[in-house]
Design a protein that fits this description.
- It is a single chain.
- About 45% of the residues lie in helices and about 15% in strands.
- It is of the alpha+beta class.
- It folds into two domains: about 190 residues, no CATH class; about 30 residues, no CATH class.
- It has a two-stranded antiparallel ribbon with strand order 1-2. A two-stranded antiparallel ribbon has the order 3-4.
- A hairpin with a 7-residue loop joins strand 1 and strand 2.
Length: about 230
């Protein structure tokens, strides 16, 4: 179906056409690593592959916009922000599968089933509120929800990506940038999108995403070359 869609025309040329990596190619690439038969729930494998593929195609589109469309400075920075946020989401999703499928996820044998709040108390002029949570034992243990930070630390500590050099250290910078999606979290007068997203953040994100998508996890994929757009500035 995708082959029948119109191609985008790049600036400065009415002849040169462009189209992102086909979904079929992205799915095949991801299917090298994201497979059924691990600790990750089988019913979630296909949706995860699709969601990651959708976002990678959109990331390539954003990359093309940044490179080939004349934009205002503000729009360039906002596109870079979107590029960083969606790249961070892809990395987080891959890390989630990686951590769970290798048996490195955090588990708990206790599941919350009820939370109760008692009355407020005042002791020596200080107000207190006692909350009670009722837990039930789960067999087998249930997975504990992990943040991007926790996933990244597990991946780095156990070197789950394989031999990727300094890539592990750079991933934490992506995580911090991704948190900028929360517009109300402001630490200083200069803490704005315009000041937070530029060429260095763009290049960092391209480098890290390329490293993850072509890491040893995907060594048997015939499609690693399709991600060269992340290498070429």
């Amino acid at each position: 179906m995708e082959k029948d869609l119109p191609k985008l025309t790049l600036k400065g040329s009415s002849e040169k056409k462009w189209y992102p990596i086909p979904m079929s190619t992205l799915r095949t690439h991801l299917d090298v690593f994201i497979v059924k038969g691990t600790s990750f729930h089988d019913n979630k494998v296909a949706p995860l592959i699709n969601n990651v593929a959708y976002n990678i195609q959109y990331i390539e589109f954003l990359d093309r916009l940044i490179k080939d469309v004349n934009l205002s400075d503000v729009l360039v920075k906002q596109n870079i922000k979107s590029f960083v946020v969606h790249s961070g989401a892809v990395i987080e999703a891959i890390f989630h599968y990686l951590v769970v499928s290798t048996g490195n996820a955090t588990e708990s044998e206790w599941a919350s089933c009820n939370k109760q709040t008692s009355n407020k108390y005042k002791i020596n002029g200080t107000d207190f509120l006692i909350k009670t949570e009722i837990l039930t034992k789960s067999d087998p243990p249930i997975l504990t929800e992990m943040t991007f930070n926790q996933l990244s630390r597990k991946v780095e500590d156990k070197k789950l990506l394989g031999d990727v050099g300094d890539l592990y250290k750079e991933i934490s910078r992506i995580r911090k940038l991704r948190n900028k999606i929360h517009l109300h979290i402001i630490e200083s007068l200069s803490d704005t999108d315009y000041n937070s997203f530029g060429k260095s953040e763009y290049e960092l994100t391209r480098r890290v995403l390329f490293g993850v998508l072509t890491s040893p996890l995907f060594s048997t994929s015939p499609y690693n070359k399709f991600f060269d757009f992340l290498k070429n500035g």
